[in-house]
Every structure is written in structure tokens, then in C-alpha cells.
């Protein structure tokens, strides 16, 4: 960690940086998965789903930036390398066999829900460690993830 004049102890910063780094790896994986869905979806609702998955990709790209910049704000090094991401992401692997609109919607819903659950747990963890601002970052991302999950699940009826 870098030296900083910020009024959070090194202990607090180290604790929340670990939470943030774990979610950064997940979020970069999630970002790539949304493009995977965007590129490969087929079927009657192709265009709508192609657009929907790209829109979610755009949201997740912002999560990635917000998480990474919170790490550097706290004096850490944001590790967004693909090697680190592949090794540390806890998300389901997107299947290459995913075929058709409904299968892509279900795959995207499952991974969004998995990511959302982890982020929600991070809200409490960051609060307990003593960094309300990082808890707020996670709260914002959690709320936005829930909303994207709603958009996806609304297509599944
Ligand atoms: Fe595209």
C-alpha cells in the first residue's frame, strides 16, 4: 500500500482493499461475460437481447472503474490483469454451449445474481471494518446490479 494522508488506518484500508480486489476480479469477469452474451445470442429476439446485454456491459464497466479507483484512492494497487481475473474470479464460467435467447437470459441472470449476492455481503463487511464510503460504493453497485437483474428476469416472464 502507498502512504496516504487519508484519515483511515492502514488496517482498515487493507481490509477493505481485499474486499474490493475480490470484487474487481469478479466484475472484470462479469464485464467480459456480458460481451459474450451480446455477441453470441441468437433467435427471434436477437436485436433486443443483443442491445440489452451490451447495455448491461456498459453498467458493469462502470462498476469495474468505481471499484478499481476506490482501491487506488485507499492507497492500494488495483490488479485488473486478465491473469489475476481468471485465477480469482468466483463467478460461474460462461458456457460456450449457451444457445438461444432464453438460455443466454438465464445464464446472465444467474451470474448477475451471484455477483449481486457477493456485493451485498461486502456492504456489511466494509461497514464492520469501518469504511462507510466503501460500503457506499458497494451499496451503489448492489442496487444497480439488482436493477439489471430485474431487466433480465423481466424477459423471462
Ligand atoms: Fe457490439
Q: What does the secondary structure layout of this molecule look like, with pairings?
A:
Blueprint: H1 10-40, H2 46-73, H3 82-88, H4 101-129, H5 132-154
The structure holds fe (ii) ion.
| Percent range for β-strand residues | under 5%
Secondary-structure-based class equals mainly alpha
- CATH topology heading: Ferritin
Query: Which architecture name does CATH use?
Result: Up-down Bundle
Domain count: 1
DSSP summary: helix tally: 5
Which percent range fits the helix content? over 70%
Mean pLDDT, all residues: 97
> What's the number of extended β-strand segments?
0
Oligomer state equals single chain
List the uncertain runs: none
Please describe the biggest sheet, giving its number of strands, its sense, and whether it closes into a barrel: none
Quick recap:
The chain starts with 9 loop residues before the first helix and ends with a helix. The model has no long low-confidence stretch (mean pLDDT 97). The chain has helices spanning 10-40, 46-73, 82-88, 101-129, 132-154.
Characterise the protein shown here:
With 157 residues, the protein is mostly helical. It has a single domain, classed as Ferritin (Up-down Bundle), CATH 1.20.1260.10. Helix content is 75%, strand content 0%. It has five helices and no strands. It has helices at residues 10-40, 46-73, 82-88, 101-129, 132-154. Helix 1 (10-40) runs antiparallel to helix 4. The mean pLDDT is 97. Bound molecules: fe (ii) ion. Residues 38, 54 line the site of fe (ii) ion.
